[in-house]
Specification:
By secondary structure, the chain is α/β, with parallel strands linked by helices. It has one domain. The chain contains three helices and three strands, in the order αβαβαβ. A three-stranded parallel beta sheet has the order 1-2-3, with helices on one face.
Length: 117
């Protein structure tokens, strides 16, 4: 394709800011929009799914921020989620992950933009 990936540090910053913005929106939605916090779902496609994977594994302001996630055609970015990286420093423990919202993930085998590896 004709796309060019930004440098890793810029990408990590962009993903971190996007994740923080989404978490803040979901956290504020019950008071500002009257939504039911027990029914908050997150859907992400492509880059939105990549941000969604980051949200799935990062610390949340409250334990049940989301009740479910659907992440399509995106990927977790393990290179940005190492303990030595800013995003990696925000990860929850494996034990905590098992208590979180369920995640439905799907990805096309012939996706040329974000290939399955």
């Amino acid at each position: 394709g004709n796309s060019r990936a930004p440098p890793a540090i810029a990408l990590e910053e962009q993903i971190g800011k996007s994740a923080d913005t989404i978490v803040a929106f979901v956290e504020a939605a019950p008071d500002k929009l009257g939504t039911d916090p027990a029914r908050a779902l997150l859907f992400g496609f492509s880059q939105g799914a990549t941000v969604g994977w980051t949200i799935a594994v990062m610390q949340w302001p409250r334990p049940n921020l989301l009740c479910g996630m659907a992440l399509l055609s995106g990927r977790a970015m393990p290179e940005l989620l190492q303990p030595s990286t800013p995003l990696g420093a925000r990860l929850v423990s494996r034990g905590e992950l098992g208590k979180r919202a369920r995640v439905f993930a799907a990805h096309g085998e012939e996706d040329a933009t974000t290939p399955v590896t």
